[in-house]
Amino acid sequence: MRPIRVYADSSVFGGCFDEEFEKPSQRFFAEVKAGRFVLVTSPLVSQEIAFAPASVRAFYDSLLDQMEIVPVTEEAEHLQQAYLDAGVVPASAQTDALHVALATVSACALIVSWNFRHIVHFQRMAQYNLVNLSRGYPQIGIFSPPEVTGNENENL
Predict the structure, then answer these.
(1) Cβ neighbourhood burial of 29 (10 Å; 0-12, 13-18, 19+)
(2) pLDDT tens across 11-31, in order?
(3) In this structure, are residues 142 and 7 in contact, taking their beta carbons and an 8 Å threshold?
(4) What superfamily would CATH give domain 4-148?
(5) Which residues contact 104 (CB under 8 A, 6 or more apart)?
C-alpha cells in the first residue's frame, strides 16, 4: 500500500507534549515512522516550532530526515488569499489558511491539526474544499490525528 501524503501543522508536534493530545499525536508520528504516511511540513511549521518549548523543538528536529518540507510558493499564497476572500477564515487566521493552502498545492491527501477553530472545523472544511474545487484543486481531507490513525474513539 502506498503511503499517504499528510501535512502536519505545528499543533500536532506540540500535541506530543500535551497531556490531552499526547497519545493520539504520538500514535500519528509512530505511523509516520512505520511508513503509513509521508510527513509533509513547511517553513511555516518550522517558524512556529522555533517558539515552542525545547522538548517540542527537539522532537521536530528528530523527524527532519523523515519529512518533506515544502516551500511557501506564490501558488500557495494565492490559494491562501482565495480562502480569505471567500471568508473561510478571518484575516486574523491567515496563517491557518496558509497551512491548508500549502497542504493543498503540495498534493497532500490530508492535513492533520489540533486547531479546531480555523482548520479542523466541519463548516470550514467544506468551505476550504469549495474554494479548492473552484480553483481546480482536489478536495483535501482535514482531520485531527486520532481520525487518521483509526482510533477516533480514544479519550482526548
Answers:
(1) buried
(2) 999 999 999 999 999 999 999
(3) no
(4) 5'-nuclease (3.40.50.1010)
(5) 76, 79, 128, 132, 137, 138, 140
